[in-house]
Amino acid sequence: MVSASMLQSAGFECQKYHTTLGNLNKDNCMFKKILIANRGEIAVRIVRACSEMGITSAAIYTDADRHALHVKKADEAYNIGSDPVQGYLNAHNIVNLAVAAGCDALHPGYGFLSENPVLSDICAKRGVKFIGPNPDVITQMGDKIQARNAMIGAGIPCVPGSEGNLEDVEEARKLAAEIGYPVMLKATNGGGGRGIRRCDNEKELLSNYDRVISEASKAFGKPEVFLEKCVVNPRHIEVQILADSHGNVIHLFERDCSIQRRNQKLIEIAPSPQLSQAQRDYIGTLGVKAAKAVGYENAGTVEFLLDQDNRFYFMEMNTRLQVEHTVTETITGIDIVQEQIRIAYGHELQYKQEEVKFRGYAMEYRINAEDPKNGFLPSFGKITRYYAPGGPGVRIDAAMYSGYTIPPYFDSMCAKLTVWALDWPSVVERGRRALDDMVVYGVKTTIPYYQEIMKHPDFKAATFDTSFVEMHPELTEYTTKLPPELFAAAIAAAIAAHEGI
Ligand code: ADP
Ligand code: ADP
Ligand code: MG
């Protein structure tokens, strides 16, 4: 573990950038330069944290990202190759660059190598502090079977399921018959909602088995799969954890991520409008217990399912910053990225559990370049016009600007809109208003679809579970406004037709 004093004795100069940040960096000791091993909105988010802490930020980019926002915003930017994606996945190359550029720490963001223990391991060996947990914890929690077994050992409730990876389809059949349908077949090393299939009977299990193995091999490079009982129409409730290197672990309350499509989150809310205070206290405590059980360090998320009888079950732990961390920041006022950096440096947590408070509700919308009317097909291309929403309680984390061309090689999420208000009805109205404010022309987005969700009585009444999106296909039947340039062209065409030109 690198501590502030060790860094000092290793000859790191600590004071240069921090003389004006007395309160933030109490002993004037902080990293000097952080390499951001990511792209898009999360790289921009990390640049912002670095800037506020007086730390130099170094971005990486591939040729396809030459004009990306994170490259423009960072203090330094390094090209890491011509292949659009591979550069972001080459751990050796990235750490070599970090060393050559004089970076004393590396932030992995989410996705890419963030949950790959190899990156964390190489960083440790090369003397670049990895802003996240150690490789052993990443390995253990990245394997959903190992994670489940660790939690069962710690007395955390888990849904019934496999004790190890499934050997063959026959084992899957036997186990499913034992625990009862419906069951979920899941990629052991999965993430991002991929490699998961619900099986309602034996026939579906037999036909899905090879499919999940093939999805797991393709998406995660590992064919292992396991099986667990399907919790019918659950709510997805997750707990944000902060753990320092001195053994202090706190939670920053929960998020409700039940609005999902195909196991991928679309809208996230903090705190959950569907929990009582007693349930909130219980799940927060359980999240801390889970993190302590595996000796967790840095920011992490413990994900649970809440069933229709109000029982919680551990699902998985994400050992990184999460997309939806913004809602937690908004209700607590705590900057999670800055806390990650401070923890990695060796500082103690700034807050005790009882000092962490929340106020109101925050809701985040993942603005994806997708066409909801066309099966959410990705819609990449040039943003001809972009106007960010504003006004009270509105936050934008975006990777786009007017004139930017969204490359087709990456995730379709191009912005996150986060809104805050004092109570549930107000946050729903504020979200609707901010979505209405936001202008993105040139590509199709999920904005109009979210506007429909905001008007739905069940959503307004805060009664929804992970089946909401699937149960309401009619919400994609909206009409969109024409962009002004197309509107003008349509009027001109109508006039021309009328005048018989
Ligand atoms: P979060 O877990 O932060 O709510 P997601 O599950 O949507 O968000 O993941 C964020 C990004 O990371 C997505 O681009 C997703 O595809 C990617 N991702 C998540 N887990 C993995 C994984 N195990 N392997 C590869 N990519 C992943
Ligand atoms: P990922 O690593 O891809 O995020 P998770 O294990 O977190 O995968 O599951 C993603 C989503 O799939 C959950 O939020 C939930 O909606 C659904 N899901 C996963 N496991 C179950 C289960 N046993 N029962 C019901 N739904 C599940
Ligand atoms: Mg998950």
| Helix-strand category | alpha+beta
Which whole number gives the mean pLDDT? 93
Class of the largest domain, according to the CATH hierarchy? Alpha Beta
Strand runs, count? 22
CATH superfamily of the largest domain: ATP-grasp fold, B domain
The helix tally amounts to 17
- Ions, cofactors and other bound molecules: adenosine-5'-diphosphate, magnesium ion
% residues in beta strands = 15-25%
Tell me, briefly, the overall form.
globular
CATH architecture verdict of the largest domain: 2-Layer Sandwich
The domain tally reads: 3
> Could you please say which CATH topology of the largest domain applies here?
D-amino Acid Aminotransferase, Chain A, domain 1
- Measured as a percent range, the helix fraction is 25-40%
Kindly provide the radius of gyration, computed on alpha-carbon positions and rounded to a whole number of angstroms.
Answer: 23 Å
Query: Order of strands across the biggest sheet?
Result: 13-12-9-10-11-14-21-19
Distance from first to last alpha carbon: 77 Å
Largest sheet: 8 strands, antiparallel
Task: Please characterize this protein's 3D structure.
Helix 4 runs parallel beside helix 5 (117-126) and helix 5 runs antiparallel to helix 6 (135-142). This protein has helices at 4-9, 40-53, 69-73, 91-100, 117-126, 135-142, 144-153, 169-179, 202-220, 277-293, 325-332, 336-345, 424-437, 447-455, 457-460, 468-471, 484-499, and strands at residues 33-36, 56-61, 76-79, 105-107, 129-130, 183-187, 196-199, 225-229, 235-243, 249-261, 264-270, 298-306, 312-318, 361-368, 370-371, 377-378, 381-382, 385-387, 394-398, 405-406, 413-421, 439-441. The termini are far apart. It has 501 residues and is an alpha+beta fold. The protein has 17 helices and 22 strands. The structure holds adenosine-5'-diphosphate (2 copies) and magnesium ion.
